[in-house]
Specification:
- The complex is a heterodimer of chains A (480) and B (312).
- With 480 residues, chain A is mostly helical.
- Chain A is built from 22 helices and no strands.
- The longest helix of chain A has 30 residues.
- Chain B has 312 residues and is mainly α.
- Chain B has 2 domains: 56 residues; 236 residues, Orthogonal Bundle (MetI-like fold), CATH 1.10.3720.
- Chain B is 72% helix and 0% strand.
- In chain B, helix 14 packs across helix 15.
- Classes of the chains: A mainly alpha (480), B mainly alpha (312).
- At the A-B interface, helix 2, helix 9, helix 12, helix 13 and helix 14 of A face helix 1, helix 2, helix 5, helix 6 and helix 7 of B.
Chain lengths: 480, 312
């Protein structure tokens, strides 16, 4: 690949050009910047990209308005087409933006794309404006017309992209251009990697922006504005409101109790592995390993199906008692709130014990046989060898897993507790993850559940780094 | 590699210990030990056997609670009847297609992204790598995540299953670590011969990293097949987009209602009783593919957990 010869001194105009393009690309995904929200009846959750991809979600709330003929279907088709034109324009601008990190020739050739792209954006914006005038003409309270902030934003962006690329094109050609287009490899690699970074940004970093809901008096479908900004109200409400406080303590008690039970029994997989490796028959070990690891690969819903089949009113236990012991048995063991923590622990062990043991089984097979030979020479029996050779060798693995489970003490996961919960055991089974789900998704208390989720995330990160520091201090190795 | 395997074999042989002289204590220990494993293994298999015999036995006998240990009146009508269960065909389609498409895209993306992160020449490589890796250690929480997906238009939308799963930082790390263990000379000589980055990736890196790609593929496929939470939260209003597990969950809940009715002595209709059999059958349909594939894939799963343990 020919290396670019031009100087890579940062150029203010190019930087403005790229920033505008990058911003336009991001705005495509963000509903708040959708230029096509020409009536407030279009969902606030519709981004420009959604308007391009799905006509159904564009007109989702407008079904009756359309069937009554208050506005024409063609208005929204026009809107969708205009959105697609804008999207194509932005894609072209993005191509130009990528080419602008190449050598002189590539930059110059690349500039034509943002020019075409910004003109297309302009065309699309005109299309949106025409659709808007049609809505205004309909003059109905059912479809209040609206010009969104995104509309003006896109006008500005299109203008900036057009002007910067025109200015760059008209610039004096004082530098000799290369014969072939090329790009420095460092930028080329970065551009190849960019899509992955963008996806990570959209799905992992962008949700953090949702933390702002914690500071507003927000109900689903409402808006965020200075009027309903409440500062730290929800944070204090959590502790000042007696009912919520009680709930929170109950949920925290369940969470910590079940996590602690898990941590206290975290040596069981190690024991399982040690005992299994004591069996001489390789085939026996293989069969046990295969069958005990299978439940791990079936989801919690399946585990619940199994639980129902065995423990419900007409399940195996009752059927066995009736058919073989001729006892009248009609207990539904799942409809009880007693010993919930232990039961959840046992289901977790049933599902995960065999699988968690594998890591120890592999570690055991990696232990230097010379250690065992030496122990035999010293007259050590089976248990001496387990105690003095195997267990010390497994300790590092055990320690790392223990620290990880301590760091995850607040995250029990949702699936297991959701599928097993019912009206009777709800109080004993509700862990933090389930509580957030019930509160946020179930009852739509978005600010409150966001507050709890925020606190949980922050505490978890702190715990993780604490565990990492502990590991560094004790073993001189980091675990993350 | 083969030398390593030999070594492991040798070690395995000795790790199970030399055969002990059978003292009484030792005999007792081995008996208890083996009994424990037999019982635990039985507990792991029996529930699935029980579900299975109930789906192939005569439905009347099943509803009377007679089928306990052996099937009676064997038939497969229940499996055929699943096509009448509303939206069941869609659930199969959604689950199978997302397992194939989601896994394929994830594996390709992890392979390529993993390869790119080994390139020291990349502009600010370590910063971007950290940008990606850090996402494993925090998350904004369930509700902000949901609102984000809502904003992106990925709720009640099939692509909501696929797109968020493409970039999997953990798998990218695994691939990166693996590629770094491939001798750099291979890549260098190809570059000297004039191969581009893309060619090096498709001709050299991809074929050589098949083992790691297979490992992340089996984990990804199982994850997709068992997916429940994203269906539950994102697709709440689109029953035709429910995954198998979500569909099963819906049926299980209607079945526990049935149990409530029976416990309170209410009237139970034939249609309600049938939900039990349907629920067992859907469970089996969800379980059987994994059971069939698992023994062949076990090796990859076991390698996968060890890779996780040694990742840098």
């Amino acid at each position: 690949m020919p290396e670019a010869k031009t100087k890579t001194r940062p150029d203010g105009l190019y930087i403005l050009h790229r920033v505008a393009i990058l911003f336009a690309c991001a705005a495509v995904f963000y509903p708040g910047f959708n230029p096509g929200r020409i009536t407030t009846e279009i969902s606030r959750y519709t981004s420009l990209l959604t308007s391009c991809l799905s006509y159904e979600s564009l007109v989702g709330n407008l079904g009756r308005v359309l069937t009554k003929g208050i506005v024409q279907r063609s208005t929204f088709v026009l809107l969708m087409c205009a959105s697609v034109v804008i999207l194509i324009g932005i894609i072209l601008a993005a191509v130009g933006g990528c080419m602008s990190v190449g050598n002189g020739l590539m930059r110059r050739k690349g500039l034509r794309y943002p020019v075409i792209g910004s003109v297309l954006m302009g065309v699309g914006l005109v299309g949106i404006y025409v659709a808007y005038t049609q809505i205004v003409a309909a003059d109905s309270k059912r479809v209040p017309p609206n010009i969104s902030g995104g509309f003006y934003l896109f006008i500005v962006l299109a203008a900036v992209i057009l002007l910067t690329s025109a200015a760059l094109l008209l610039r004096k050609k004082d530098e000799a251009l290369e014969e072939k287009m090329g790009m420095k490899e460092e930028y080329h690699l970065f551009l190849l990697f960019l899509p992955f970074l963008a996806l990570a940004f959209v799905f992992s970093y962008l949700p953090l922006w949702g933390w702002r809901y914690a500071f507003f008096d927000y109900t689903a479908g409402g808006t965020l504005s200075a009027d309903n900004f409440v500062g730290f109200k929800w944070f204090t409400y959590l502790f000042q409101n007696a009912a919520t406080r009680k709930d929170l303590f109950r949920v925290l008690r369940n969470t910590l109790a079940m996590s602690s039970l898990g941590i206290l029994t975290s040596w069981l997989p190690m024991l399982f592995a040690i005992l299994l490796t004591q069996v001489n028959s390789k085939r026996f070990r293989r069969i046990v390993q295969t069958f005990t690891t299978v439940p791990n690969f079936l989801g919690w819903v399946i585990v619940y199906a199994v639980a129902l089949a065995i423990f419900s009113t007409d399940g195996f236990i009752n059927s066995f008692l009736k058919n073989f012991l001729h006892v009248q048995a009609n207990t539904n063991y799942l409809m009880s709130s007693s010993h919930m923590w232990i039961k959840m622990l046992l289901w977790g062990l049933w599902k995960g014990l065999g699988w968690s043991a594998i890591i120890y089984i592999s570690s055991i097979s990696g232990i230097d046989p010379a250690l065992y030979e030496a122990a035999t020479m010293d007259g050590a029996g089976r248990f001496r060898k387990i105690w003095n050779v195997t267990i010390p060798q497994l300790m590092p693995t055990f320690f790392v897993l223990l620290l990880m489970s301590i760091a995850g003490i607040l995250s029990n996961g949702l699936d297991q507790y959701l599928v097993f919960s019912n009206a009777i055991n709800q109080n004993a089974i509700e862990v933090l993850d389930l509580y957030v789900y019930n509160l946020g998704i179930g009852s739509g208390q978005i600010p409150m559940s966001t507050v709890i989720g925020m606190a949980k995330s922050i505490i978890s990160v702190v715990l993780l780094f604490g565990a990492n520091q502990a590991s560094k201090a004790l073993r001189g190795e980091s675990i993350i | 590699m083969s030398e390593n395997e030999k070594k492991i074999k040798k070690v395995r042989h000795t790790a199970s210990g030399p055969r002990y002289k059978s003292s009484v204590g030792d005999k007792v220990f081995m008996t208890v030990n083996i009994t424990f494993f037999v019982v635990f293994t039985f507990l792991c298999i029996f529930p699935f056997y029980y579900l299975f015999i109930n789906t192939i036995s005569d439905n009347d006998l099943v509803n009377r609670g007679v089928i306990t240990l052996l099937p009676k009146g064997i038939h497969i009508k229940n499996y055929l009847a699943l096509q009448n269960v509303s939206d069941f065909g869609n659930s199969i389609l959604v689950t199978v297609s997302r397992t194939i498409l989601g896994t394929a895209l994830m594996v390709l993306a992890s392979g390529f992204a993993g390869y790119l992160t080994t390139k020291r020449k990349m502009w600010h490589r370590s910063m971007w790598y950290r940008f990606l890796v850090i996402t494993m250690y925090f998350n904004a929480g369930l509700v902000p995540w949901y609102l984000n997906m809502l904003g992106l238009g990925l709720t009640n939308n099939y692509w909501g299953y696929i797109i968020p799963g493409i970039v999997a930082p953990y798998n990218i790390i695994l691939v990166k670590t693996y590629i770094e263990s491939i001798p750099a000379e291979l890549e260098e000589s190809a570059t000297i011969d004039g191969a581009s980055n893309m060619q090096v990736f498709t001709r050299i890196i991809l074929p050589l990293s098949k083992p790691i790609l297979a490992t992340i593929a089996v984990f990804g496929a199982v994850g997709n097949w068992n997916s429940f939470q994203d269906s539950l939260i994102l697709m709440a209003n689109s029953p035709n987009l429910y995954t198998l597990q979500h569909r099963l969950y819906v049926y299980l809940n209607s079945s526990s209602n049935l149990a409530n009715v029976m416990q309170s002595g209410g009237q139970v209709t034939a249609a309600m009783l049938n939900t039990k059999v349907i629920q067992y059958t859907i469970s089996m349909v969800t379980i059987i593919p994994i059971m069939l594939v698992y023994p062949f894939m076990q090796r990859y799963f076991e390698e996968g957990i060890m890779l996780g343990a040694v990742k840098g």
